[in-house]
Amino acid sequence: MKKLLFLLLLIPLVSFGQTAQVYFDQASKKLEIGNYYGAIADFTKVIEINSSSNAYLLRGNAKYNLKDYYGAIADFTKTIELDPNSQAAFSNRAQSKRALNDNNGAVADYTKAIEFGFADSAIYFNRGNAKFNLKDYYGAIADFTKTIELDQGYVTAYVFRAISKISLGDKNGACKDAIIARDLGFKDPTLIQDTCN
Q1: Is 150 exposed, middle or buried (0-12, 13-18, 19+ CB in 10 A)?
Q2: Which CATH number belongs to the domain containing residue 131 in this structure?
Q3: What is the dihedral of CA 127, 129, 134, 135, to 10 degrees?
């Protein structure tokens, strides 16, 4: 009798875990196919059942895709509260902050993501863009240079580094970057005209 009672008590716990996992799987599939509202609804159910940093992170991604940047930032912040080492949460929150023109906040979050080892060419490029928007051209050039070190074919990094160099009066350096960008396939002739003449 005691075993039966114990098993009956376990049934809600087992179904509780399965339900959260079912909602999480459904939400992940919806996110993958672009059904962001459906994904948000299912991730919210997961969070109501079991506060999960992954559910907050992915719900934040869905909100970002719907241009709900404030909602995305809230979810990425909650992810960081639950998992302070979440590289993706810092990087994604930085993207959301950039979308809201909070470039200082974006630089801080990109820097944190890099400190945690999330250091690919795109994150340096994005941080460089945020620094460029802050008119920190030296910082932007450093990040665009790091982007190019990690990916020598990153055409847009050459373009933005050229523009940053123009902003600092380095027309020769800007021209060199513009020529490389052109040779890599950048089609806009005005960059060469503006930097090399």
Answers
A1: middle
A2: 1.25.40.10
A3: 120
The total number of structural domains that make up the chain: 2
64 with 48, same domain: the answer is yes
- 50 and 95, same structural domain? yes
For 5, the 3-state DSSP assignment is helix
Domain membership of residue 192 as a residue range: 124-197
Assess whether 101 and 143 both reside in one domain.
no
Q: How does pLDDT run across 125-172, given as a tens digit for each residue?
A: 999 999 999 999 999 999 999 999 999 999 999 999 999 999 999 999
162 shares its domain with 136: yes
Contact in structure between 161 and 181 (CB atoms under 8 Å): no
Phi, psi of 117 (to 5 degrees): 100, 5
CA dist list (Å): 61 to 32, 119, 179: 11, 20, 37
pTM for the whole structure: 0.84
CB contact at 8 A, 93 and 62: no
Same domain, 133 and 101: no
Residue 108 has a CB neighbour count (10 Å cut-off) of 17
Here the contacts of 150-154 (C-beta below 8 Å, separation 24 or greater) are 150/119, 150/120, 150/121, 150/124, 151/121, 153/184, 154/121, 154/125
